[in-house]
Structures are given as C-alpha cells and as structure tokens.
Design goal:
heterotrimer, A mainly alpha (about 290), B mainly alpha (about 290), C alpha/beta (about 400), A: about 290 residues, mainly alpha, about 75% helix, B: about 290 residues, 12 helices
Chain lengths: ~290, ~290, ~400
C-alpha cells in the first residue's frame, strides 16, 4: 500500500513539470488559438541558452541561470512569432502549423549543433532536499516547481484579467476584427503574448532541466506530446486546468508504470486522453463557452 | 544508378504516406494518425511474407485492408473532435499504435532460427526482395506502380462528385450539411481510403528497408505525413508528390553537399516555404 | 597526328597514374543525441588517412602509390536514410564504407547487402561495410559483406564480472537498470551482462526498466533500493544513465559497485553527471595508455574529434583497410571498381588477427572482432584505467 502512495506521490510531484509546461501550452493554444508546435522546443532552447550564463560567469548561482533561461525564452518566443505567425495570413492555419514544426526541427538542430548532442548537466536548486516521513519521501525541488506553477498561474491570471494587455489578448482571441476596430494593435498584442508565454516557457525549460538534472535534445518531442495531452485534458485555455491535468497525468502514468511496466505506460496515458476526449472533450475545466 | 533507384523507392513510399494524409486533409481533418496505419500495414505485410511465406502482392492487399479497417475504426470517434483536438487525438492514436508494436512479440521458428516481430528489438530480416532476386530498379517500378495507382485513384476522385463533396466538407461543414451531404459517410470514407493507402505504403516500406521497429513509426514520420500535402498544397495530388520530392529529394539528399548545414537548413527551409507559399507549392484550389 | 595522339595519351596516363586516390566513405550519425559519435569518427578517419598519406599512401597492384581520401555521409541514425546513404556510396567510386554509428541502422543496412557472396539469386548490394561503432551483439553474421571492428561485449563483460568476483568475493548480488527501447542497451543486459554475471557466480536479483528519453526514475530507483544488491549494473546511454544516477543520489541508494554500458564510457556521461558517475566501472577497448594510442588521440584532436573506443575503432579500420588493400593487390583503376571491392571484402574475410591500438585483435568466422580490452572507471571527471588485463 505504501508503494502505491509513494508511487502516486512521486508521479504527481513530477507532474508539476508537466503542469508548468502545460500552462504555457494552454495559453498559446487556448487563449491565443494558435497551434505552436515549437513551444516546448523553444522552452528547452531557452534552458540551454541559460547555460551561457555559466560560460560567462563560472560559479553563477542557479537562479541566475534560470533568469538567463527566462530571458532567452522570451526572445525565442518572439522569434517564433516572427517566423511563423507574423507574415503568414490567419486564414492559413495549416501553414502556421507546418512552420512551427519547421521551427521545432530548427531549434532542435541548433541545440544539437552547438552541444554536439551531448547531455549538459544543469544546475538545480533544492535538488538534494528530500522531505521524509518514515519510509515516505518527497522531492523538495519538485515541490518548488509546483510552487512556481501556482505562482505563474496567479501571475498569468492577473495579467489576463487585470491588465490592459490581458484584456487586449482576450479581445483579440475572441474577435480579432472587432478588437482592431477598438484600436487594439493586433501585431503588438500578438507579439507581446508570444513573448510572455516564451518567458514562462524559458523558465519552465530551466526548471524541468533542473529537475531532470541534465538537458538533452531528447527532451523536446516528449515534452511537446505531454504538453499537448495536458492541455487537452485540462481544457483548452484553462490555466488551473493545465496544473490539475499535469499532476493527474504525472500521477497516473507513474502508477500505471508500477503495475504494468514501463513499455506499456505511455499506452495508458494515450487511453486516458481518449477517455477524456470521448466523455469530457472540454477537459477538466471546460472553458467558459464563448463565441466559437 | 542504384542510388537513384533507391531514392525513387523512398520517394514513392513517402508519396503514399503523403497521399493518405492528403485525402483526409481534403475533408478538413488534420490527421497525425497516418503513421499508425502505415505501421499496421508494415507489420502485417512483413508478417505475412516472412512468417506465412506469402507473395508480396496478396500481403500488400491484406495490408491495405488492415490499414483501412483500423482507419475506419478511428474515423468514427474522430468525428466527435475538431480542430486542434483532432490533431492531438490522432497524434495520441499514432503513438498508441507505435507503443502497441513496442510491446508486440510474435515469433515463429523457421529453419533453425526464430523470426518475427520481437517487441523493442523490432522485426528483422524481411528479405522478400533480395531473396527473390529483385533488382533495385525492379523494386522501384513495383513501388511506383502502387504510387501511380493511388495517385490515379485520388485524381479520379478529384474529378468526380466524391471529390467535390470531400472538398465541400473541408471548406464548410455546416454549408455542406445543409445541402444534404452526409458528414459521417464522407469523413469516415476519406479516413478509410487514407488508411488503405497508408497500409500499402507501410507494407512496401517494411520490404525495402528489411527491418522495422516501433521507433521507425514515430511522431516525426506522422508529421512528415501531413507535411507533404500541406507543403505541396491541396490543389491536386501532384502537390503532394512535389512536396515529397522537395523534402526527400532536395532537402535530405540534394543538400548533402552542405555537410552539417543540411540539417539546420531543413527546418529553416520549411519555415521559409510556409511563409512564402502558405497555400503550398501548388496552392489551393480556386473555385471557378 | 598519330605521334601527337600518342604523346597526349601517354601524358594523360601518366597524369592519371600520379593523381590516384583510393576513396573510403565514412558514414554515421551527425544529427541528434549521437552527433558526437559521427563527429569523432569522421575526425578519426581523416586523421588516420592523414598519417597514412604522409607515410606515402596505399601501394597499388602496379606498384604505384595512392592517397586515401575520406568522404563522410550523415545517416541521422535513421534506418531508411542509412540504406539510402549506402546505396549512394555504392554509386560512387568508394571501395568500402566505414560505419554506421547506430545499431538500429546497421541491422537493416546489413539486411540489404547480399547475404552470401557469389549467390547469383540474391540481388542484395555487393559492397563491403566495415563498422566502427554500431555495437549490438551479433550483427555482422547477417551478411558476408559486413564486417565489424567493435569490442566483443560478451568477452568483456565475462571478464569484468569474473574479475569483480575474484576482487570482491564478499559481493554476491547484482541488480540492473535497463533501457528497454534501445536495441543495444536492451540486448546487452539480457543477452550479455545477465548471463555473464550469473556465470561468474553472482546472484542476479532482477532488473528494473526505463525508456531512453525518460526523465523520472523514482519508481525504478525505489525498486533498486529494495533489491539492495551489492553491484548495480546500468545498461543505458548517458542521458538516462545520468538521470538514474541523480535519482539514486537523491534517494540515498549507494551500491558498493556500479557497472555501466560500454558506449557510456565516453565524454558524454562525464559532461552530464561527472559527480554522480564517480566510480562507475565500464569495460572498454580504448584508453590512451601507450604511445601509439596517445599519438592517435592527438592526431584525431587536430581534426577536431575526441578519441574514445568508438572513434579509435574507425582509426584502426583505416590501417586495417590499407593492409588489406595492399595484400590483396587492388588496382585502383575505375574499370576494376567492383573487382577491387570484392578484393577488399575477401581480404577482410581472410584476416584472423589485426593490429589494434591496444594490442592484437582477433577476428572470428562471423566477421566480428575480439578486441583487447581494459576496465576504466570514472574518477574526478575523467576516465581512469582501473584494471588492465593486457
């Protein structure tokens, strides 16, 4: 029985990393209605860029590296916007989808070229902190990540609902033409929202790198898939949904791994997704129904 | 010469993969599941020729049918989801198929050794072509016979009422429904035809590489599948063919002289292509 | 007119004779997580060619000397692309190809080669491939045109577990962690490490599993902790090896000894987690412990590659090929291309031993190598020799 709770706890805690990347995904997909397949790759790219801080300042503290990743993520977010969304007309969603795929491949290749594909150790905070209660233990660094997810959620909700940029973003996502008629500058809003999600993405990438301990180009595709799954299960556009879904997926996959083994684990995650798609397509927190 | 025949084989098989995504894309469904049907066809054909000793042609027939059957089964639940959700659902399905084969063991003893798919190790020694003395050029012609047949079929669809109906559903479902088009029949049938084509493509793939494993049918392959019709444009089947030649012929092989830069340019050129021609190389169909 | 024609053709013939090159193709992964392997192999091939050429080059059948030229092709660790690449190589005037990097490319690639030499009914490709890196057990027997110069993991792990057993008689149990979705790591545990450990008297308690790109090893390390074995064997590549080692550190799992996978005895593991990898023991077929090895490493470094068991196999391959070409008397003339390729194949097949950087390498009837090996362990961010049976 302890096994089950320990496994569940391990999984749910690791799910905090999915939650963190899922928040950005759900914002991009659900609020901005843009399919950005390059999001996770840009986040990992931001994390790698954070390592440049260590090159410049050899003994830099981890939080400085995370800050570097944060900034780099924002920059990458802007680049993805320019390369994939600025010039391509809105009436060609397939083209934007494909160009973000191209960006994913490009970012991956740049990472491989710069690092020769070798895994890079990543600085971590609290990675040796383990909260113990007898036989039961919990990873301190993952609790930190969970904390950051919650803070990010609060920050983003404040941004979306209490600032003019947030208002503009929501307006643009609902009715781009009407928004423009109200004087909202489409290009500025879109670019800025990509930058904001990019900033979050860079931080997510850094924290995920810290929790895994090493960065590798192997991270990008699985993280993209997890992010997409979490977004759907949580509900497109729902930030609290992304957090809950992240924890749910993390716990679920770890428990299934315990009972059914690692080779079947991902199969069950797909089945979980299908169950949601069939029975609750809106996700856990179905977004408030607005205009389609 | 052998190399060009080999490249033509690769282009042929990828064209089949692209065509399977093309027909589904016409109905407005972005399906990342085509690699899954491809995998089903690959393992089916491989098992029939290696374990049961069948000739490749009937084996490919069964591949087509199994691909179609699985696609049909996917087509119905796919009706319930739209847009991005469909992309994710089909992606998850494709991954599910890959994971199934990752866990799939079916070994039979033949001539002192065991043959057949072995989970993570894959399915090795699918040597129908070399064992029966097929030359590279002959294999190429064989593959292209199927490609031409698939293109002809889809071309004929495009010229017939069925094609118009497919595109109508792709343009505006509500309008199509209001003129009496049966959405279910159209979407599921397109998915089924796509599955059949992907099944044949997969069967051919298994035989020309002689070794398949779950990792061969990953997300990247699924992405290539829809990349071809998107980059090529939905105007006609030739768009998909041009896109395959562009990607596999030019980007992958033609740019080899650039050495390391080739891979960097791969993603960059796709981004550029989409920015310059958002409707694809051949563009979208313009109504009269 | 006739005299002029004669003079021109003589001049041309002389010109051609002087400009003789023997083309060797290298191929492997220059993309993805295994890019460093391709980079290093390419550098080693260029370095070896440089040394050979500076010493005069390869002697051809007619007594003239030819320079060795290397061209490297990227197969992106993808089976279909590997097949495309080998066909492309076969269409050039290369005599032999050195590669591939990935075992999942080698297997299908060997599958399209002609199975048995001289079998007129087999339309497989007739081109010799001499592998430097792809190490999954038992691949060369797929085709008589396939040869490998990779360490024999069976022999190495047999020797390692036997040595560990004699050195540490108090250690009785082994538990493993296996990367299940990568051909090499999976095969090496179940087919090589496990039976060899048992044969040396260890009690294998079991194994836990994960996937190549996994990031959460909590459950697996808990199972490891429960098993509480003296020795933990990790049959995985650097990324997940580092992930597991970090989790082991977190959960306080400290086995008395750690054993790793051959191909993880490279720079990557140290780059990713030098601290946690401290002490891990890996059998390998290269360490810069003699003059020749050090010189090879230095020359390869000039071509911007690192010397490890994989790239140094490529280096050795070039010298072996030079000797084979000279002993079989290849002509190097364009018209004799297929005959020369056949000679290279036959020459490689005849070899019973080859000279390697660590000593004499034996070759067996299944076209595999039995390379001299030693055991290294990670100490303070470097691979140091632990035990040299040579």
């Amino acid at each position: 029985m302890l096994d089950f709770f320990q496994t569940l706890s391990d999984g749910v805690l690791f799910g905090a990393t999915y939650a963190l990347i899922g928040i950005g995904f759900t914002l991009v997909f659900g609020v901005m209605h843009k399919i950005n397949m390059a999001y996770a790759a840009a986040s990992v790219g931001g994390a790698y860029a954070g390592l440049l801080v260590l090159k410049v300042m050899a003994g830099a503290p981890p939080w400085l590296v995370f800050l570097g990743a944060f900034v780099a993520g924002g920059l990458l977010g802007w680049m993805v916007y320019v390369a994939c969304f600025h010039f391509i007309p809105l009436s060609s969603p397939l083209a934007t989808l494909m160009s973000t795929v191209g960006m994913l491949l490009l970012i991956d290749e740049v990472i491989v070229h710069v690092t020769d594909g070798m895994p890079q150790g990543y600085p971590a905070m609290f990675d040796d902190v383990m909260l113990r209660a007898g036989e039961f233990s919990m990873r301190g660094d993952l609790l930190l990540i969970f904390g950051v997810s919650v803070l990010a959620m609060i920050g983003l909700l404040l941004l979306l609902y209490r600032t003019s940029l947030g208002l503009a973003t929501r307006a643009v996502s609902q009715q781009p033409v009407a928004a423009q008629l109200c004087g909202i500058r489409l290009v500025r809003v879109n670019a800025l929202t990509f930058v904001v999600t990019g900033l979050l993405g860079g931080l997510a990438g850094a924290l995920i790198g810290a929790s895994v301990g090493t960065l590798s180009p192997l991270l990008t595709v699985p993280l993209t898939v997890k992010g997409l799954i979490v977004t759907v299960i949580g509900g497109l556009g729902s930030i609290p949904g992304a957090i809950v879904a992240g924890l749910l997926v993390g716990g679920f996959e770890n428990v299934l791994q315990l009972y059914r083994g690692v080779t079947e684990r991902d199969l069950y995650v797909m089945l979980l997704l299908f169950v949601f798609l069939v029975f609750r397509p809106g996700g856990i927190f179905a977004a408030r129904s607005g205009r389609d | 010469m052998d190399f060009y025949f080999g490249l033509a084989q690769l282009i042929g098989v990828h064209t089949l993969l692209g065509l399977s995504a093309y027909i589904v894309l016409l109905t407005g469904q972005v399906s990342l599941a085509q690699a899954g049907f491809f995998a089903v066809g690959a393992y089916t054909a491989g098992m029939l020729t290696v374990l049961a000793g069948w000739h490749l042609v009937p084996a490919l027939g069964v591949s087509a049918m199994s691909g179609a059957a699985v696609a049909c089964a996917v087509g119905f639940p796919a009706l319930r989801v739209k847009g991005l959700m469909l992309v994710i659902a089909t992606l998850a399905f494709g991954e599910g198929v890959r994971l199934f084969f990752f866990n799939f063991d079916y070994q039979v003893a033949k001539g002192g050794i065991t043959v057949g798919p072995l989970g993570g190790e894959g399915f090795r020694q699918i040597r129908f072509f070399p064992e029966n003395g097929w030359e590279t050029g002959e294999v190429m012609l064989f593959i292209w016979a199927f490609v031409v047949a698939a293109m002809a079929l889809l071309w004929w669809f495009d010229r017939s009422r069925y094609g118009t109906v497919l595109r109508a559903v792709g343009e505006d479902e509500l309008a199509a429904q209001s003129v009496g088009v049966n959405l279910t029949a159209v979407k599921v049938s397109a998915m089924t035809v796509g599955g059949a084509i992907a099944g044949v493509g997969g069967g051919l793939y298994a035989h020309y590489t002689t070794h398949i494993e779950h990792a061969s049918f990953n997300i990247l392959l699924a992405t290539f599948a829809i990349a071809y019709p998107i980059v090529g444009g939905l105007r006609s089947v030739f768009g998909t063919l041009l896109a395959v030649i562009f990607v596999q012929g030019f980007l992958v092989e033609g740019l080899r002289f650039l050495g390391d830069w080739r891979n960097l340019l791969f993603g960059a050129l796709i981004v550029l292509a989409m920015n310059l021609r958002p409707s694809g190389i051949l563009g979208r169909r313009r109504h009269a | 007119m006739k005299k002029l024609a004669l003079a021109v053709s003589l001049a041309l013939a002389a010109g051609v004779a002087h400009a003789q090159t023997i083309n060797i193709a290298g191929f492997g992964a220059k993309t993805g997580p295994v890019r460093s392997f391709g980079v290093n192999s390419h550098a080693a091939l260029l370095a070896a060619a440089d040394v050979i050429n500076k010493a005069g080059g390869v002697k051809l059948a007619d007594g003239s000397k030819a320079k060795m030229a290397v061209e490297f092709y990227d197969d992106r660790c993808d089976a279909a692309e590997g097949i495309s690449v080998i066909r492309r190589i076969a269409g050039t005037n290369a005599l032999v190809a050195v590669g591939p990097t990935c075992s999942n490319v080698a297997e299908p690639l060997f599958g399209i080669l002609q199975k048995k030499v001289g079998d007129a009914g087999d339309s497989g490709l007739q081109f010799p491939v001499f592998t430097d890196v792809a190490i999954k057990v038992g691949l060369a027997k797929i085709s008589e045109w396939a040869f490998r110069n990779v360490p024999n993991e069976m022999t190495m792990y047999n020797s390692l577990f036997y040595w560990l057993h004699t050195q540490h008689p108090e250690m009785k149990t082994v538990y493993a962690g296996v990367e299940e979705d990568f051909a090499h790591s999976r095969a090496t545990w179940y087919i090589v490490m496990k039976p060899r450990a048992e044969a040396s008297g260890f009690n294998v308690l079991g194994n836990t599993k994960w996937l190549l790109a996994d990031t959460n090893f909590a459950t697996q390390v808990r199972e490891m902790k429960k098993a509480n074995a003296d020795i933990v064997a990790i049959s995985a590549h650097p990324f997940s090896t580092c992930g597991v080692l970090k989790e082991m550190q977190r959960q306080g799992v400290k086995p008395k000894l750690l054993v790793g996978l051959t191909s993880s005895s490279s720079l990557e593991t140290l780059q990713g987690c030098a601290k946690q990898a401290e002490g891990i023991i890996i059998p390998t077929s290269f360490a810069p412990i003699n003059k020749e090895a050090v010189a090879a490493a230095q020359t390869t470094a000039k071509f911007k590659g690192a010397a490890d068991l994989h790239s140094m196999a490529a280096w050795e391959n070039m010298f072996i090929l030079k000797n084979v070409m000279e002993s079989e008397g290849i002509s190097g003339k364009p018209g004799d291309l297929q005959a020369d390729r056949r000679k290279v194949r036959d020459g490689l097949a005849k070899l019973k031993t080859t000279k390697g950087l660590m000593g004499v390498t034996k070759r067996d009837a299944e076209r595999e190598a039995d390379k001299p090996y030693l055991f290294v362990h990670a100490k303070k961010g470097e691979w140091k020799v632990l035990y040299n049976p040579l």
